[in-house]
Write a structure and sequence with these properties.
The complex is a heterodimer of chains A (116) and B (114). Chain A is mostly beta strands and 116 residues long. Chain A is built from no helices and 11 strands. Chain A is globular, with a radius of gyration of 13 Å. Chain B is mainly beta. Helices cover 0% and strands 50% of the residues of chain B. Chain B has no helices and 12 strands. In chain B, strands 2, 5, 6, 10, 11 and 12 form a 6-stranded mixed beta sheet that branches. In chain B, strand 7 and strand 8 form a beta hairpin. Chain B is globular, with a radius of gyration of 14 Å. Chain B starts with a strand and ends with a strand. The chains are: A mainly beta (116), B mainly beta (114). The interface between A and B is medium-sized, with 27 and 24 residues.
């Protein structure tokens, strides 16, 4: 039972390059999330998908796009990376759809991204 | 701006000492409250949560937290810490007004010295 799997674990990009962060969960969860973690800032929600087929912006969506490919997978795309996007990115999932976080988030191990 | 504040950035304790980590938030109205923990090299996991009812909630590994509505606080406590409690602890708030968002504090790093 792998839980939430993120790839890659590490990535270095040059400014202007694009890349997609992959996330997959094997728990049949309805909701999936992308967070970024920066020093002194805590975790901030980038985008979420409350259920298959829906996506919505979180607190810091600018510069990102997402795709809920199916119930298992939720990818995060940086079209033109900027140094401000240097961060650790976490994918998470939860059992229930919708809001209120009344089921716990299950996190992946994170992707450490550096943009030079 | 509304926020979640964890004023202790790094706490160092000896084993068997008591722990209290502060968490204050500024959202009005109904809130759901959480503490998440990240052990070294591991992913974040839920420690405990409060939705309603008894304001003193118990979580895993002997942790508990008390919701004090008048103080907008949800402090985490443990009577006697162990070396294995060394981790980073995050308070998180889901306000009813922002139902689709979960706001995290900046985290408190706890180091327990054997």
């Amino acid at each position: 039972n792998a839980g939430v799997t993120q790839t890659p674990k590490f990535q270095v990009l040059k400014t202007g390059q694009s890349m997609t962060l992959q996330c997959a969960q094997d728990m049949n969860h309805n909701s999936m999330y992308w967070y970024r973690q920066d020093p002194g800032m805590g975790l901030r929600l980038i985008y979420y998908s409350a259920s298959e087929g829906t996506t919505d912006k979180g607190e810091v969506p600018n510069g990102y796009n997402v795709s809920r490919l199916n119930k298992r997978e939720f990818s995060l795309r940086l079209e033109s990376a900027a140094p401000s996007q240097t961060s650790v990115y976490f994918c998470a999932s939860s059992e229930k759809s919708g809001s209120s976080y009344n089921s716990p988030l299950h996190f992946g191990n994170g992707t450490r991204l550096t943009v030079t | 701006a509304q926020s979640v504040s964890q004023h202790n950035h790094h706490v160092i304790l000896s084993e068997a000492a008591s722990l209290e980590l502060g968490c204050n938030y500024s959202y009005g109205g109904t809130v759901n409250l959480f503490w998440y923990v990240q052990y070294p090299g591991q992913h974040l996991q839920l420690l405990l949560k409060y939705f309603s009812g008894d304001p003193l909630v118990k979580g895993i590994k002997g942790f508990e937290a008390e919701f004090i509505k008048s103080k907008f606080s949800f402090n985490l406590r443990k009577p006697s810490v162990q070396w294995s409690d060394t981790a980073e602890y995050f308070c998180a708030v889901n306000p009813a007004a922002g139902a689709n968002n979960l706001f995290f504090g900046t985290g408190t790093r706890l180091t327990v010295i054997p």
